[in-house]
Amino acid sequence: MNLKGESAGFSGDKTITFSNHMQGENYICAGNTLKGPKVLSSMANTFSKSTGSLAEKLLKALKAGHKAGGDKRKKTYGSGSLKISKDKHDIFGLGDDYINLRIDYSKTPIKDLTKLLNQRKKSEVIYSSQYKY
């Protein structure tokens, strides 16, 4: 997904289990080793109908995909990430990464990402009141 809202995806025909992507206005959902196409359609529908910030909409879509079956392997742990870039420096002046969160080896990666996002939002309020850029 680029800043113009253009998206691209490719899922090869030699994947071992279900793998695909679904594109729509301002989003693309993609995954491999998924339970099936309902995972992607649940993510896409949830993203399209959700309100809130982009980060919140993305996490809602991840939750919907997980609820629809998620990863076919049903591991007892997982990982997840949330990255949003802007064409201006982030609040901390570090570059184009506006949000860059990651969770590895978690039993609840989506819940943990949500917690990290909430912590980041608190930091943004604190720092934005102190620094004007």
Note the topology.
Elements: E1 20-24, E2 27-31, H1 37-49, H2 54-67, E3 78-85, E4 97-106, H3 109-130
Antiparallel strand pairs: 1-2, 3-4
CA radius of gyration is: 16 Å
Counting copies of identical and different chains, the oligomeric state is single chain
Strand order of the largest sheet: 1-2
Largest sheet: 2 strands, antiparallel
Domain count: the total is 2
Total of helices: 3
**Secondary structural class:** alpha+beta
Q: How many β-strands, per DSSP? A: 4
Q: Averaged pLDDT, please?
A: 85
* Low-confidence runs of at least 5 consecutive residues: none
Beta-strand portion reads 15-25%
Overview of the structural elements:
This protein is an alpha+beta fold. The protein folds into 2 domains: 1-74, no CATH class; 75-133, no CATH class. 37% of the residues lie in helices and 21% in strands. The chain has helices at 37-49, 54-67, 109-130; strands at residues 20-24, 27-31, 78-85, 97-106. The strands form 2 sheets. It has a two-stranded antiparallel sheet. Strand 1 and strand 2 form a beta hairpin. The longest helix is centred in the last third of the chain and has 22 residues, at 109-130. The chain starts with 19 loop residues before the first strand and ends with a helix.
Brief synopsis:
With 133 residues, the chain is α+β, with helices and mostly antiparallel strands. Helix content is 37%, strand content 21%.
